[in-house]
Design the sequence.
């Protein structure tokens, strides 16, 4: 008969690292989800967890003929494609760039977790949330941060609508 502790055993991975990866993804994803942006809690948590698993596995395969750092490079490339998928052109501008950048940062947090730097991963995730909220606050409350593509269109109709297009 199998011992119940065997059910929860995930060696060679660690529950603290898995929990940290999911937590870091969740706190960044929560900010995105509360704003109705792509890449919410579920997606963000899966990105950090997946990156952790790929990189941690690569370091377990470390032999004379393997280079686990190449996996990090491949993760960055793959994440770039995922990020490109959330960006699109809309009315002559590009939207989703911040979500794409968030995906990139989420993967880097997963790498940090895989390198067993759990507390720095949490601190850096909180920094990301502060940047996302802080810059948004500045865009809403200052003219200097709300120019050009960052202008907020509240209560105004676009030129297309007024021209009947």
Sequence:
């Amino acid at each position: 008969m199998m011992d119940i502790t065997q059910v929860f055993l995930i060696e060679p991975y660690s529950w603290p690292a898995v929990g940290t990866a999911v937590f870091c993804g969740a706190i960044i994803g929560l900010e995105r989800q509360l704003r109705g942006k792509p890449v919410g809690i579920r997606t963000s948590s899966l990105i950090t967890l997946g990156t952790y698993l790929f990189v941690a596995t690569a370091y377990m395969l470390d032999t004379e003929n393997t280079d686990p750092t190449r996996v990090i490079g491949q993760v960055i490339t793959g994440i770039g494609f995922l990020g490109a998928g959330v960006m699109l052109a809309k009315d002559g501008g590009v939207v989703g760039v911040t979500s794409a950048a968030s995906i990139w940062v989420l993967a880097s947090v997963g790498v940090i977790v895989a390198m067993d730097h759990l507390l720095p991963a949490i601190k850096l995730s909180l920094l990301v949330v502060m940047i996302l909220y802080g810059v948004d606050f500045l865009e809403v409350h200052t003219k200097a941060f709300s120019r050009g593509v960052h202008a907020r269109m509240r209560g105004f109709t676009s030129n297309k609508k007024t021209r009947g297009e």
